[in-house]
């Protein structure tokens, strides 16, 4: 079965600094989703990547899919307190495209 | 903006009792899912539902679990006889189409079995 490993498990970053979170799959990736989780707010969709080499950006968050490396990275530029939370990657599988998940990366932003 | 709504936000139940977790997916969506997250662990897939029937279910989704879409708007997860290990956050999600479409998640129901 497919496993997703996220690194680092947790990250403390000074406000204004850049950071990168990685998600590595044990099997070929046929797409990759990034979500953010905050207590009481469920899972908030960030980005969806479909093809190898694809890169998407939204505000200060950029995600990239490296199909050959079976890996995706999420990069935050000039981090802000609003970026704090748990970042989850999910890979689609199965007939209805249900997601399997990484364990999450907990991001803390120091003022 | 459309959203998935889950109720209740928190439920405490005694072991052995039945619970029903409710979800209102986005109205024109066709694919529905339940996931759960035990505290400190990964989010796990439970079941997917399409065209009024279960499409796929995980090993976790045993005979104690059932899902229903009784009235075309609600999507429910029933746990027949709760166990302590059912304590978790349960997330409902819906998707408008197959494959590369966004899955919208509800805010979750925290189930505590005592």
How would you describe what is shown here?
- The complex is a heterodimer of chains A (111) and B (114).
- Chain A is built from no helices and 11 strands.
- Chain A has strands spanning 4-7, 10-14, 19-25, 32-37, 43-49, 55-58, 61-66, 71-76, 85-93, 98-101, 105-110.
- Chain B is mainly beta and 114 residues long.
- Chain B contains no helices and 11 strands.
- In chain B, the strands form 2 sheets. In chain B, strands 2, 4, 5, 6, 9, 10 and 11 form a 7-stranded mixed sheet that branches.
- At the A-B interface, strand 5, strand 9 and strand 10 of A face strand 4, strand 5, strand 9 and strand 10 of B.
Main traits of this protein?
heterodimer, A: 111 residues, mainly beta, six-stranded mixed sheet, five-stranded antiparallel sheet, 11 strands, 58% strand, B: 114 residues, seven-stranded mixed sheet, four-stranded antiparallel sheet, 0% helix, globular
Shape of chain A: globular
What is Rg of chain A? 13 Å
Mean pLDDT of chain A: 92
Task: Give the helix level of chain A as a range of percent.
Answer: under 10%
Sheet of most strands of chain B? 7 strands, mixed
Helix and strand pattern of chain A: EEEEEEEEEEE
Low-confidence stretches of chain B: none
What are the low-pLDDT stretches of chain A, counting only 5+ consecutive residues below 50? none
Number of helices of chain B: 0
Q: Classify the secondary structure makeup of chain A into a structural class.
A: mainly beta
Number of strands of chain B: 11
**Beta-strand content estimate of chain B:** over 45%
Summarize the structure.
The complex is a heterodimer of chains A (111) and B (114). Chain A is an all-beta fold and 111 residues long. Chain A is built from no helices and eleven strands.
List the helices and strands and how they pair.
The complex is a heterodimer of chains A (111) and B (114).
Chain A: E1 4-7, E2 10-14, E3 19-25, E4 32-37, E5 43-49, E6 55-58, E7 61-66, E8 71-76, E9 85-93, E10 98-101, E11 105-110
Parallel strand pairs in A: 2-11
Antiparallel strand pairs in A: 1-3, 3-8, 4-5, 4-9, 6-7, 7-8, 9-10, 9-11
Chain B: E1 5-7, E2 10-13, E3 19-24, E4 31-37, E5 43-50, E6 53-57, E7 65-68, E8 75-79, E9 88-95, E10 103-105, E11 109-113
Parallel strand pairs in B: 2-11
Antiparallel strand pairs in B: 1-3, 3-8, 4-5, 4-9, 5-6, 7-8, 9-10, 9-11
């Amino acid at each position: 079965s497919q496993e997703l490993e996220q690194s680092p498990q947790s990250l403390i970053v000074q406000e204004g600094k850049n950071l990168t979170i990685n998600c590595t799959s044990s099997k070929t990736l046929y797409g990759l989703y990034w979500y953010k989780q905050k207590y009481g707010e469920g899972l908030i969709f960030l980005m969806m990547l479909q093809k190898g080499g694809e890169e998407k950006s939204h505000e200060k968050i950029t995600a990239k899919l490296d199909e050959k490396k079976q890996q995706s990275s999420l990069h935050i530029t000039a981090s802000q307190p609003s970026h704090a939370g748990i970042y989850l990657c999910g890979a689609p599988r199965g007939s209805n495209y249900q997601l399997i998940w990484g364990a999450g990366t907990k991001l803390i932003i120091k003022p | 903006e459309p959203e998935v709504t889950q109720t209740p936000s928190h439920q405490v139940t005694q072991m052995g009792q039945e619970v029903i977790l409710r979800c209102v997916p986005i109205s024109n969506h066709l694919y529905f899912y339940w996931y759960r997250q035990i505290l400190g662990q990964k989010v796990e897939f439970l079941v997917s539902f399409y065209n009024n029937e279960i499409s796929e279910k995980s090993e976790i989704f045993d005979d104690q679990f059932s899902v229903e879409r009784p009235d075309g708007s609600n999507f429910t997860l029933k746990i027949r006889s709760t166990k302590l290990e059912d304590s978790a956050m349960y997330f409902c999600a819906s998707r408008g189409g197959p494959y590369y479409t966004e899955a919208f998640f509800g805010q979750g129901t925290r189930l505590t079995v005592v």
